[in-house]
Amino acid sequence: MTSFMTTTGLSPPSHQDVLDSSARLIDKQLQDDRNCLELSDQLKVPVHNQPSHSGLNEFDYPSFPDAGVALDCLTEVSNVKRVPLPAELVEQFGRMQCNCMMGLFPDISRACDISRAWLTIDSDIFVWKYEDGTDIAYFDGLNETILSVALVRPKQGIFQPHIQYLLCLATPVDIVLLGVTFTRPFDGSSSSGGGDMHLLPEYLFSIPTDNTFIMNIIGTDNGRIFMAGKDGCLYEIVYQADDGWFSRKCRKINHSTSTLSFLVPSFLNFSFSEDDPLVQLCIDKSRNILYARTEKGTIQVFDLGQDGKSIGKVTSVPLATIVHNASHVA
């Protein structure tokens, strides 16, 4: 038997060659990793390996187009329905001189499906059904630019029964309460949301702001109205049917200062306490707790009492404390 052996003429790689090839491969992978941004860099975390926060600034989260991500690539997000702005409102943008804002009125209760959007253009406000773009109501009786808007419940026994809600509007000069009526009551039996909405043309109440820039407004189920001031104070609008011995029909109360604060001129309060404005209010209805967030992230907690008719400040937690405590939760 004859055997044949064929050789390729190549000697097996040496141990050193294998090490050099592995080193080059690792170097390439390390270089590729260095060319990619770290997750902390993409999230704009200022200090590595330290707890951080985001959400106080609108630029904390980059937009999808700027990040090179199209909405079509996000399977979790899809357009269910798109309703354009009513043509009558689009025309109003051509008349804008100073400011415009837009938002949705939240459903005040499960039985009250408001389903309304609102738009302010300078001193005018427009309200319409966002589901189909119909039933446009408007109010143009103000002379100053509207800064804050809220739809709130009225107190029981103060107004006529046909006034089902109050529209609270804040300008740099004054705060007004408008009556809101619907062609049908909200009884939970109709899906049309109480029929057509109407804004009463005359103020129910109007009070001066006293140089306070109102940032946010929120109402409670029992008719209380709270406001966040740019001066860092929490305010409440208190109104009643008739003037009392020591109180007016409608007045503004500052819950962040002492009872002797009226001795200090309002312009001094405005100039010395505007370093951290209140920007957002939220109410926990189940516990009658009001939360206030400042521009720098401090959370203030107010107890409205078991019956929701009192108020007392419980605590104030700065952002640094919140971040520190959150980092130790896990």
- Write down the secondary-structure element order: HHHEEEEEEEEEEEEHEEEEH
* Biggest sheet statistics: 4 strands, antiparallel
What is the strand content? 25-35%
Q: Report the total helices.
A: 5
Secondary-structure content class: alpha+beta
Task: Please state the oligomeric state of the protein chains shown.
Answer: single chain
- What Rg, in angstroms, do the CA atoms define? 30 Å
Supply the number of structural domains.
Answer: 2
The low-confidence parts are: 259-263
How widely separated are the two ends? 75 Å
The averaged pLDDT comes out at 83
Strand order of the biggest β-sheet: 1-2-3-4
Number of strands: 16
* Fraction in helix: 10-25%
**Could you say which overall geometry the principal axes of the C-alpha atoms support?**
elongated
GO molecular function: structural constituent of nuclear pore
Pfam families: Nucleoporin_N
InterPro entries: Nucleoporin_Nup133/Nup155_N, Nucleoporin_Nup155, WD40_repeat_dom_sf
Domain Nucleoporin Nup133/Nup155-like N-terminal: 75-310
Helices, strands, pairings?
Blueprint: H1 15-35, H2 39-42, H3 87-92, E1 100-104, E2 116-121, E3 124-129, E4 137-139, E5 148-152, E6 165-170, E7 174-182, E8 197-208, E9 214-219, E10 225-229, E11 234-239, E12 250-254, H4 266-272, E13 278-284, E14 289-294, E15 299-303, E16 312-317, H5 319-327
Antiparallel strand pairs: 1-2, 2-3, 3-4, 5-6, 6-7, 7-8, 9-10, 10-11, 11-12, 13-14, 14-15, 15-16
Protein name: Nucleoporin Nup133/Nup155-like N-terminal domain-containing protein
Keywords: Nucleus, Transport
GO molecular function: structural constituent of nuclear pore
